[in-house]
Amino acid sequence: MDYKKSVIYEIYPKSFCDTSGNGFGDLNGITSKLDYLQTLGVNMLWLCPFFVSPQVDNGYDVADYYAVDPRYGTMEDFDNLVREADRRGIGLMLDMVFNHTSDQHVWFRKALAGDPYYRDFYIFRKGGADHTPPTNWKSRFGGSAWEYLPERDEYYLHLYAVQQPDLNWENPAVRQELQKVIRFWMDKGVKGFRFDVINQVSKGAYRDDPDGDGTRLFTDGPRIHEFLKELNANSFGRDPAIVTVGEMAATRLESCYRYANPQEKELSMVFSFHHMRADFAGDQKWVLAPVDFPSFKQVVFTWQSRMAEHGAWNALFLNNHDQPRIVSRFGSEGVYWKQSAKMLGTLYQLLRGTPFLYQGEELGMTNGHFPTLSDYRDVESLNNYRILTRRGLSPDDALRILAKHSRDNARTPMQWDDTPKAGFTDGTPWIGVNPNCKTINARAELADEDSVFHYYQRLIALRKQYDVVSDGDFQPVTAEDDGVFAYARTLPGETLLVVCNFYGEDYTWQADRTLDGFRVLLGNYPAAAPTGQSIALRPYEALVLYRKGAQA
Ligand code: GLC
Prior knowledge:
This protein is α/β, with parallel strands linked by helices. It has three domains: 3-99 and 172-459, Glycosidases (TIM Barrel, Alpha-Beta Barrel), CATH 3.20.20; 106-157, Oligo-1,6-glucosidase, Domain 2 (Oligo-1,6-glucosidase, domain 2), CATH 3.90.400; 472-548, Golgi alpha-mannosidase II (Immunoglobulin-like, Sandwich). The protein contains 17 helices and 20 strands. Strands 11-10-9-5-2-1-13-12 form an eight-stranded parallel sheet. The protein has a five-stranded antiparallel sheet with strand order 14-15-16-20-18. Helix 12 (337-349) runs parallel beside helix 16 (452-465) and helix 13 (379-390) packs antiparallel against helix 14 (395-405). Alpha-D-glucopyranose (GLC) is lined by residues 57, 60, 97, 160, 196-197, 247, 321-322.
């Protein structure tokens, strides 16, 4: 699949479409919506894990990499999904969670039972004196990254939940098992793989991090490039059509030059997250802070320019199942809801890289804004609520933070129609439906030419139609102007100019060039072709301009 022309759609199966009535979305639900996805124009679906799992982390705790969890359906349902997607020119990308397994995985059960072969599949260490864990590393979900096993008087490492023990990649038998998993799914007709937190698998030395929580020690670790090259050579690299993306938590730009450069034979592209921290207070997620637009823009521009200089390819996104909804975060839920949703889509989809959109983004779905603790399901959110209130924050203040930053904001059921359960299920949904499905839903948007859905459809078509979108160079435009997000994509004799007003107020943009000769390819307001050197932008206005001809 030509990943430069592709647009990939992420599905969180649990919240997409339930055909069995058990309150969880399922594989047949995805199959039933393939026509909808084809109408949207996407050509690959990234499916979050649907493998057998106790669901402590919604399937990112895998107990069997080779089997479909019964709550999502059967292997026949999966084979049928592959076939039906293929008929529509849509490929499937599966989510490979290889940094850790579930504690219910047979490898971990055997390791705990003392089997020496499987013991070396995980990371067991003795603690220090007075019951101190082997290192001061913190779990991504709060608390120590080491769990004590009293019966053995030792600890095991879990960078995520206690029920997600980390695999020991230093053991070649582990790496071979994981290669086998990929080959199994390739044989089933899978066309892509997303690798979960893959840049944390090479841990380096197990020592204290005097200035931090260990992140810098186990991120982009010493053997990571070797491990990826080996995985590539022994599995997906055997078929050049396979598309891969690595989730690179807290990564370094310099590491990504290698991860995502085709000559290195590691991955097709990478997700990085620095641009998603524009509303964090420093590095801290569980504190409320306003959006720092200049820093957001600077991070995106730096990654765009530098990755291109090093021949590396970006995965582009503003939403996923771990991020609150972008329209609630950087845009507006008020009068400019629709304009801001369209503006944010324009801003990132036309950058250099492969865009990923997340279910419901094409409808402008907003945060769940759950009012009570019992509405939450996410292990990270619940752990951090406990940590915040133990530190003395009032329950109300802690809930206010969750309402903005919890991952559950993005995990509410897909809004198919305006009925109370949004057309997601006939049963009891596993997590609450956003009541705004009354107005924000697929049925209504399909019927409205001016909807966010139809705008996304046009955006997606631009990448297929214009080589300057898929292949053009990236150039920042008026980078120092903090009112707008503007950039150009160029090929010899062609320029695409994207101008986005990031704010809910009018703003007059002074361009760095004449705009004569540009025509409007797309915009979220009715707009005439510009002339001269300035444009009066309306609140959250986005304009996509195009000119053929010599001058850039
Ligand atoms: C990734 C996944 C996230 C999961 C974590 C642990 O960040 O996207 O949902 O909780 O890895 O597997």
